[in-house]
Amino acid sequence: MNYRHSFHAGNFADLVKHALLLWLLAQRQATGPVTVLDTHAGAGLYDLAGDAVRSREAEAGIDRLMASDDRPPLIEALAQAVAETNPGGGVRYYPGSPLLVACRLRSGDRYVGFELNPPVLALLGEVLEPFAAAAARGGDGYDQVLAEAVANPGSFVLIDPPFEQPDDYHRAADTAAAILRGDPTATVAVWTPLKDMETFDGFLRRLAGGGAGRVLVAEARLRPLTNPMTMNGCALVVLNPSEGAEAAATEVCGWVTARLGQAGARAEVWISG
Ligand SMILES: C[S@@+](CC[C@H](N)C(=O)[O-])C[C@H]1O[C@@H](n2cnc3c(N)ncnc32)[C@H](O)[C@@H]1O
Prior knowledge:
Rossmann fold, 273 residues, globular, binds S-adenosylmethionine, two-stranded antiparallel sheet
């Protein structure tokens, strides 16, 4: 377990994931109380004065987002959440998915975040401590989430692995499809990096083979996918997406690629299955 999200917190991929997470959460909440399950929760809050200074990924991501003056509504919603995390101003701290969700829980909503790495789990526990309806659980999120989803029909699941293990694509696809088979009313969002197209296409084929049904694919390609050794973009793949998700993804991926991308950057948003 070498992965440390603190190097990547607030990068373009977090912005795509978190802007859409906020929108998808609001859609589910509009239909009644929701249980949010986060298979790979991370620490919940990141101090951008640490590892992020060396990686400079937040500088190219959230710093530019906060400095921009043309934010469409879904990007503005993320900017507001980041501003709330930094009440003294500036962008010192960046909220991860656990904190973004926990701050938005309403009466009857619940959040459960799974985290495998014990030191990261301890940080997550501290971040979630003030939120009675939010819990941090140790252990493997892939193994535990299906039972939770089936026990809480209509849940909203985020699967956000580090993709440092060779079986992460398979496990993410199989877990997402199994949740939909166990509860067709669940919504599942899976984040993946975009390096080369065959890896991503293989992931989509595996999802379809598992019976995932109708899937929204939201791709933000920051540069042409010519070097498969680097993260050239990212995608959020949403199973059983809410009404309006295509427009929401187009707004988010379009803004991120246009404002933060290199020459040849583009957004691709489409429905598969
Ligand atoms: C990309 S980070 C999560 C970021 C978080 N979802 C967010 O948006 O703020 C991935 C996290 O998953 C953890 N992890 C890796 N494998 C795991 C597994 N099988 N089950 C649960 N957590 C895992 C890593 O320790 C890491 O903290």
